[in-house]
Amino acid sequence: MIKKQITERVKPAPMIVKKEGIRTIRLQLQEQLNSAEQRLASVSRKLEEKNYIINGLRIDLEHAIDQISLLQHKTHLPVGKPKWISRPLPGINA
Fold first, then answer.
1. Cβ–Cβ < 8 Å for 59, 51
2. Which whole-number Å values give the CA distances from 30 to 14, 36, 89, in the listed order?
3. Residue ranges of the domains in the chain?
4. How far apart, in Å, do the first and last CA atoms of the chain sit?
5. Could you please report the per-residue DSSP string of 54-83?
6. Nearest to 37, CA basis, from 69, 29, 91
7. pTM of the predicted protein model
8. What pLDDT digit, counting tens, does each position of 23-77 carry?
């Protein structure tokens, strides 16, 4: 009996929306959409900036790797005087 009284008191309200209510809902949804678009544009700009920075760092790293490779190649060359200097030259170290 108590359940019946509670369910009678808590009936769902009919879904009647006045024109003003529709306008209000439409304006709220439009504001939410505009806000979401602004956030998306902001995130997009930040991603572009980060991609620009990442690409710059990638170029710097590739250049550094190339320089290290050149340095390693130079250090693997034979140590000491090159052979053309170590042989006797007429008139200089004969």
1. no
2. 25, 10, 90
3. 33-75
4. 127
5. HHHHHHHHHHHHHHHHHHHHHHTSPPSS-H
6. 29
7. 0.47
8. 888 999 999 999 999 999 999 999 999 999 999 999 999 999 999 888 877 776 5
